[in-house]
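JOB MANIFEST
job_type = single_chain_structure
chain_count = 1
residues = 291
[input]
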Amino acid sequence: MSTTTLKSPPKSGPLYLKAALGMTPLAGKRSKEMPQRSVRLENIKTDPVKLSDYCRVTGFTMRDTLPPIYPNTLAFSLHMSLLTAGDFPFPAIGLVHVENTITQHRPIGVSEPVSLEVRATPIEPHPKGRQFTMITEVLVGDELVQVAESTYLRRGGGAQKDAPVKTGQRPPEKTKELPAIAEWKLPGDLGRRYAAVSGDRNPIHMHDLTAKAFGFPRAIAHGMWTKAHCLAALDNRRSDAFKVHVAFRKPILLPAKVELAAAEHDGGGLDFAVRNVRKGTPHLDGTIRPL
């Protein structure tokens, strides 16, 4: 596997232009295999103003350590640089984020520069299409402090009804069993607010009109905002070293009223879920386990 080390984060404007062009015939013929390469960015320093903005939108409290999901925002442009490359098998726009796992070996200090390396796994069959996982390694010096895995689904060709959903652990749907512990009223502009602090300006999150172009009746909340808000609410109920895994269920149409449900797991850690207050529609199921 080859590695490209970048001198600075890729600019979002050109990346989204490439993503839009990737949906047109200009993209040309796509590869059938996942390219074997990674992208690396070294010695990234945390901007305290950007971190403060992120905490305000997601609900985290500013501390001397980073919120566990914050490195995901630092790595987003690296993800996009791989997803929009000419030899990537799928268009970036239209991919469905179905699962996310973060394994944190220790908290990351705000003052610690981090290095990021991102790669994509080989394509696997899925009952509704094909899937792959973007893996992000976060290092402080030579120490691996966090690994994030984001699994994406490309609907359509290649679907195998008997294929496993993922070669990993998918949380069972617990939304009807867990007791509600909080209720959240999500505003219609939440997608734009989170996009401003995360860099993820996918049109399905930005406005109702652009979301309708992709088959949604209204703009939908970012899955990673939902996961971040859950972790912010449960921040004092986890260990410093832990693994948090979520499966994204039905999208949250904005505005919305949802509730967080959570309970301690018999073997340690927590099970949690996000569901619609009125209908009980499941939006997210997750687990937190100590390492």
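[summary]
Residues 15 and 80 are 7 Å apart (CA to CA).
The chain has a mean pLDDT of 90.
exit_status = 0
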